[in-house]
Amino acid sequence: MSKLYNIKNWTRHNLRAWMAEKSIKHCKVQEFRADQIFYWLYQKKAESFSEMHNIGRETRKIMEENFWISSLEKAETQQSQDGSIKYRLLLDDGLSIESVFMPHTSHNTVCVSSQVGCGMGCDFCMTGTMGLVRNLKTAEIIDQVLTVWNDQPEGKNIRNIVFMGMGEPFHNYQNLLQTLEILTDEHGFNFSQRRITVSTSGLLPKIRRFGKEKIKANLAISLNGVTDDVRSKLMPVNIPY
Question: InterPro entries from the entry (predicted)?
């Protein structure tokens, strides 16, 4: 049996390229179907290929034979007085991560994690005491957004995404970029780039690289100290940079 790919690890351009190759091999998978599949996954929030009723049966069969659609299990939720909800979500390997729904007057925000644990060793951060366990896959970041979204009535006007949960996003750089591409894809979530913020502890080389990327998400730098000496005590990353 051939290995099934988690479709949420793929950008739409990856999927279009795969479908084009399949078409060359006479499997009758039209390239433009990737656009429709992305629409079903991220705008209709489909959980199976069988729900995608405007896609031909043969194409759906080919997708089911090659891909699977992941999801995350909610292990625990905690709600604060201001309406914020913290989710503990289970991964396939039994590890867990945290995501947060944050309500505002005119819109709502989802805060996502990029790693299990964190290797930055910031003095004030509980996650840092875990050390870095592993990077999250693109699908595991995307599924955080979908889990929180589906838990809110009609998505509760979720307009902002912030990478301020567990982990240092720039230590999971490629999966971060793939996630941003899916979030901003017009056939995907279709979030505005200016509605997404990536927070970093201050990895200077990656900050410079990120500024040259095609996707222009907002960048936040965690300071946590009014002087260099104070920040260096709190955040070891400040010493080399």
Answer: Aldolase_TIM, Methyltransferase_A, RlmN_N, rSAM, rSAM_sf
Contact 131, 63 (CB under 8 A): no
Q: Over the chain, what is the mean pLDDT?
A: 91
Q: What is the domain-level CATH number for residue 53?
A: 1.10.150.530
Token pair 């995608």 in the structure block, residue: 52
Tell me how far CA of residue 42 lies from CA of 90, 187, 189, 200, in angstroms. 21, 8, 5, 26
Of all helices (H) and strands (E), which one includes residue 161?
A: strand 158-163
DSSP 77-130: EEE-TTS-EEEEEE-TTS-EEEEEEEE-SS-EEEE--SEEE-SS--TT-TGGGG
Between 123 and 53, name the one with better pLDDT. Answer: 53
C-alpha neighbours within 13 Å on the C-beta side of residue 241: 16
Please report which confidence band the pLDDT of residue 26 belongs to, taking 50, 70 and 90 as the band edges: low
Predicted pLDDT of residue 35:
94
Same domain, 12 and 114: no
Do 210 and 197 fall within a single domain?
A: yes
- Give the structural domain span for 64: 5-68
